[in-house]
Amino acid sequence: AREQIEEVYECGVAAVPHSTGLWDYYLAWREQCPASDTPEAARAAVRALYERAVAAVGTDFSSAPLWLRYADFEQRVCGDERSAAQVLVRAVAVPLQQAESVWQRLTQLVRECRAQDVLPEADVVALGRAIASAADAQQASQREDEARSAFLARAEAAYKNAQEHAKARAEYERVVLTRPYFHVKPVDATVLDTWARYLAYAQEHEDPECVRTLYERCLVPCAAHEEFWRMYAAYQCGDGDDDSAQGGPKAAREVLERARRFVRESPAMTLQRALLEEAVGDVQAAKSTLATVA
What we know:
15 helices, single chain, mainly alpha, 0% strand
């Protein structure tokens, strides 16, 4: 029965990989139903699933609870404060709706735990040297507090930068969240315009992984709107290099192939597909594609 349940969840995240709710249910089930008889293997399997989840939806504006849950798993289940802190450090660098909760959790963890248990290994080594040269216990404690403060200062710089983006994203999110699902009813023009501006903002200010995640979110409610598929393909194509962070022509071609399942192809989209076929070296496919509108 466990294998069948797991198969259902795997089918779900394969079909809708950018659903934070689905990942949350999957993780809750996995923690309750270990995949291995040994505790170490079971924890490793859950950790691997958390990594898959944050890779898929960790940049989502509403993913703060996922990051907090991951950190709680590392601290509560695995007893690893250092790993929990590193999860939270990664999270505070992401523009999140509830970023303040993540930051507070990180500062609480660092202040409450022994510095040797929560700081990165390199910081612990440096702290060990500083404590060894301390004149007395009071000075050693002061060095430990300084190490905590330096660690939090580095994390705070990333947090403040992410917060600036979070404020900008909040205005877009307020509108697009009024229609987060697919429906046969047309998407409101205000929502469509907001998605277009939101994506333009992300392309200018966010990293490629965040932009791709945002496009995938957009294409759930806007699957019937060709313009977003074409925008996504154009972004993926980037400078035409398949090794680029944006994806390259092959990734762009896959986007347009997916689009054909949802929208009636226009001549402009057919031309875009033909150009992508030519870009990946399949000239015959490009000719065949153009022949459909000849």
